[in-house]
Amino acid sequence: MIFLFAGFAALLVASSLLVVLHRNPVTSALFLVLAFCSLGGIYLLLQAEFVALVQVIVYAGAIMVLFLFVIMYLNLRQDVERGVQTAIRRGLGWLVGAVLLAEAFALIAKRWQVGPVSGGPEMLEGNTQAIGRALYTRYLFPFEITSLLLLVAMIGVIVIAKGRGGTAAADDSAEEKP
Amino acid sequence: MAALWNQPDVQVAVWALLKVGIILNGMLILVSYMIFAERKIAGHMQARTGPNRVGWFGFMQPWADVLKLFFKEEFIPAEANRVIFHIAPMLAVIPALVTFAVVPFGPGPALVGADVNVGLLVFLAMSSLGVYAITLGGWASNNKYALLGGLRSSAQMISYELAMGLSTIGVLMLAGSLSLVDIVHAQSKVAHVFGLPIPGWYVLYQPVAFVIFMITALAETNRAPFDLPEAEGELVAGFHTEYSSMKFGLFFLGEFMNVISISCIAVTLFLGGWNGPGPASLGLLWFALKLALLLFFFIWIRWTYPRLRYDQLMNLGWKVLLPLALANIVLTAIAIQWVSGAAG
User: What are the two backbone dihedrals, phi and then psi, of residue B104, each rounded to the nearest 5 degrees?
Assistant: First the structure.
């Protein structure tokens, strides 16, 4: 178990570093996919199989495909950065990184147990049911609010996509959908 | 040696490796003979005989084809992104193979790779990862036809994945489990209507979902009439224009392996899996028969229907299949509530 965890964790750290450090945006995006998959592996080791697979489906399978789609569409071969903007961004990055590193050291100092949570009663039926029950009872209101927000976002996207130029006929709107 | 064998971890690993070996080799042979069957059936549909020279009735043709692919010259475009160009064909095969890990081929734990309690999600995850092979293959070739093919495929697969995922929800609601083994068990009940045995297969309870699943399966595997990513009339050969030798072979293998894995899932979800008349030991045979039927269906469709236009494809996916799948979920929910209300 600990070997698998070490493997996935090492893969996650390495691929996350490569996302940031690699020059080619497409390769960066692919390393992000790898990072999501290894994160899924870690969830799996924590016996959170539903979260693990949803992680792969949603992030690796849907969101990153769209990212890749946009990168390829714009044909960004090299990411070009220059000037003051870069300096600000680098500075912010170092700052946030330092804070995260300090947090990590603080957390490691607390000596957490590695491995799955030893089960409450809901662990017996598998966590798919447990998540469903929690979403529809205790967290029903936030869940509904989130779905409403997503619906508004969807309608907004369609309105914006339709409205641009005013020439969007019924047949070519279908082609712009992805 | 015996002490090593007595450790449960070692036993699990050895059994898993054995299953992996059997599935891998079995699927390679199945794919090569499915290609052979496709050529034969296509031939007879077009009033010719198909390959019949190599071996007995042409039965050695797949081996000859594979050998030929291995010995072909491999060509990589000068401006291609070499690493991704090499990775893309592998990505075409791996997700399709991983899906077989959760398919219950027959009753009993020996015939299931791994009975995980989120088996259906594994399938959906792997089919969503399948997009990368074609998109990346098209992009890394640095060829405009290949890029167009890759972009088309990602648009197409994202659009149809939604309807496919939604069409399986009706089955989930009836079975009450994400485990494929549980879903097959849930279909084993035989109802008797006027003395006639009616199997509990979900195709009878979820006909709309089955039709949507099969249409989206055709689109997800990029088979005709949804083979726009490789439309040869407009895109030369689409995403695999620049691929040659065994790299092209891997894309080919991936496509057919996807067809087989998606058919396995369709058999499991809708056609009752290994369930059938007779003793339980016939389960594997029933599964194979149903699988063969669906594979024939795939070939039959391919040589019957012309390719869709791109806007027709998007209209069908977003304006017909998606609302239908959503309506199916709502109707299934109402029906389940009705039946359970009447029973309780």
Answer: -85, 105
Q: What pLDDT does residue A81 have?
A: 59
Which one of B79, B147, B178 would you mutate to disrupt binding with A, by most A Cβ within 10 Å of its Cβ?
B178
What are the boundaries of each domain within chain A? 2-115, 139-178
Q: Which of B153, B158, B160, B302 is nearest to B229 (CA)?
A: B153
Neighboring chain A residues of B131 at a CB cutoff of 8 Å: 61, 65
To which residue do tokens 């750290």 refer?
A13
Q: Is the reported ipTM for this assembly greater than 0.85?
A: no
Among B312, B322, B155, B306, which Cα is nearest to B231's?
B306
Q: What 3-state class would DSSP assign to B221?
A: coil
Strand partners, B197: B192
Strand, helix or coil at A47?
coil
Residue B231's alpha-carbon distances to A39, A71, B133, B239, B308, in angstroms, are: 37, 24, 17, 10, 10
Written as one string, the DSSP assignment of A104-121 is: HHHHHHT-PPPSPPPP-G
What are the C-alpha distances in Å from A44 to residues A51, A169, B172? 8, 47, 22
- Taking 50 as the pLDDT cut, the residues of chain A under it are 121-122, 168-178
How far apart are the CA of B44 and the nearest CA of chain A, in angstroms?
37
CB B239 within 8 A of CB B134: yes
Nearest to A34 by CA among A1, A54, A59: A59
How many percent of chain A have pLDDT more than 90? 17
pTM for this model (two decimals): 0.81
- Helix (H) / strand (E) containing B196: strand B196-199
The dihedrals phi and psi of B193, each to the nearest 5 degrees, come to -115, 115
Q: Packing angle between helix B283-302 and helix B245-270, nearest 10 degrees?
A: 120
- Decide: B179 and B117 in contact? Cβ < 8 Å: yes
Q: Do A178 and B124 touch (CB under 8 A)?
A: no
Report domain A2-115's class: mainly alpha
